[in-house]
Design a protein that fits this description.
Blueprint: H1 2-31, E1 40-41, H2 42-45, H3 50-63, H4 71-82, E2 90-92, E3 95-100, E4 103-107, E5 126-128, E6 131-139, E7 143-144, H5 145-149, E8 153-156, E9 163-165, E10 172-174, H6 175-181, H7 186-189, E11 194-197, E12 200-204, E13 208-209, E14 220-228
Antiparallel strand pairs: 1-4, 2-3, 3-4, 5-6, 6-14, 7-14, 8-11, 9-10, 11-12, 12-13
Helix pairs in contact: 1-3, 3-4
C-alpha cells in the first residue's frame, strides 16, 4: 500500500509537470509564430535559448501528428533553424520541415499534378489532387460570373511563359514574381491552380484577378479561394 501511494504521488507530479510544460510551450509558440498561419519564425526562435526552442519545436511538431524526434536530431534541427545560414530541411514521418524566408513550415508531400478538369461551375467546389477550389458569391468583386457562364474560363496549372497583366493594364508580370510577392513558397507554386481564358491567366485563386475579368461595381462575381488538403 505504501508503495502504491508513492507511485500514485509520483504519477500525479509527473502529470502536473507535463501540463506545466505544455502551457509553457503554448505560450512560447505564440511568441515565435511566423507570418504564415501555423508557421514558426526563425528570427523569433533565435531569441529563445536552445532548451526553450526545443520545447517549442517538440510541441509544434506533436500538434501536427508527428512523432517526437530523438534528442540529438532535435538538437540539430534547433541549431539549424536558429542559425542564419541556408534553408534547413528535416524529414519526419513522410512530412518535411522546410523554410521559406523567415517562416518554418511542416509540408506534406504534394501529389502529382492531376490533369485539371478544365471546366468549373461555381458555386460548386472543385476537388483537385492537392486541395479544393472554393467560390463565394459577391457583388462588385471577384471574377465576373458572365465569364463562367460563357464557358470561356478553365482551370489549369502554370506552364512556362505564363504571365499576368498588372493592374495598370499594360505591364505584365511572371507567375514566379506574383507568387514571390504574395509569399507563396516555391514547393507550392506548381500545384496552385490558375483560371485561364484560352492561354491568358485571368485569376489566381486567393491572390489575383485580372481587371479585364473582374466584376464591375454592380456586377455579380465569384470570389475564389484555394484550400490545401
Amino acid at each position: 500500500p505504501a508503495m502504491d501511494r508513492t507511485l500514485a504521488r509520483s504519477a500525479k507530479l509527473h502529470r502536473a509537470s507535463a501540463r506545466e510544460l505544455a502551457r509553457t510551450a503554448r505560450a512560447l509558440e505564440a511568441d515565435v509564430a511566423g507570418q504564415c498561419r501555423g508557421t514558426l519564425s526563425r528570427l523569433r526562435l533565435a531569441t529563445l535559448d536552445p532548451a526553450q526552442a526545443a520545447l517549442v519545436l517538440r510541441h509544434w511538431l506533436a500538434k501536427r501528428g508527428l512523432r517526437a524526434l530523438p534528442a540529438r536530431r532535435l538538437e540539430g534541427l534547433v541549431s539549424a533553424l536558429r542559425g542564419s545560414a541556408g534553408s534547413p530541411t528535416c524529414a519526419i514521418d513522410g512530412m518535411q520541415v522546410r523554410c521559406y524566408r523567415d517562416d518554418v513550415f511542416v509540408v506534406a508531400p504534394r501529389q502529382s499534378r492531376s490533369t485539371p478538369p478544365g471546366d468549373w461551375a461555381p458555386p460548386e467546389s472543385l476537388e483537385l489532387a492537392n486541395g479544393t477550389l472554393l467560390a463565394t458569391a459577391a457583388v462588385g468583386a471577384g471574377v465576373a460570373r458572365k465569364w463562367f457562364d460563357s464557358g470561356e474560363v478553365s482551370v489549369a496549372y502554370r506552364v512556362a511563359g505564363d504571365r499576368c497583366v498588372m493592374h495598370d493594364g499594360v505591364r505584365h508580370q511572371s507567375m514566379k514574381k506574383l507568387f514571390q510577392t504574395h509569399g507563396v513558397p516555391p514547393w507550392n507554386r506548381d500545384f496552385w491552380p490558375l483560371l485561364k481564358a484560352g492561354d491568358a491567366v485571368i485569376a489566381v485563386p486567393g491572390i489575383y484577378v485580372s481587371q479585364t475579368y473582374m466584376a464591375g461595381p454592380d456586377e455579380l462575381g465569384w470570389i475564389l479561394e484555394w484550400q490545401w488538403h
